[in-house]
Amino acid sequence: MNDRLEYKVFDKRNNKLKEIKGYTFSLMGFEDLVTIQWADGFHEGNIPLKDLIFCQCTGLKDRNGKLIYEGDIVKDTGYYFNMFCKVGFKKCAFFLENNDVIAYFHELRACFSENRLEIIGNIYTTPELLEEQ
Hints:
Number of strands: 11
Number of helices: 2
Radius of gyration: 16 Å
Shape: elongated
CATH class of the largest domain: Mainly Beta
Strand content: over 45%
Low-confidence stretches: none
């Protein structure tokens, strides 16, 4: 479960979701800043924290073997939801949500044991997937 410590970052400055290798926080004046080492090895410093959204890895994989991150949109191919859901994090737990229905991961053992979830997008670059339902 070392994957749980992995993050992706949505950069609001260019509307891109990117993988990272590491990051550090600093304070300059009254502004929180971040220095990031992107997955491609490029370092970028003094990025205002307000321009970034950190998405934590759940440590779980979808039916295709891809790691599931907070902010991903997944399709449940089974009987529980049978719809598109967003992956979120609340009350110290990951959950699936569609409209007003929230199911926490510990309640969804069947989704993972039966490999029913498939990542189809994320809420930052393809939010229209949730609106189509």
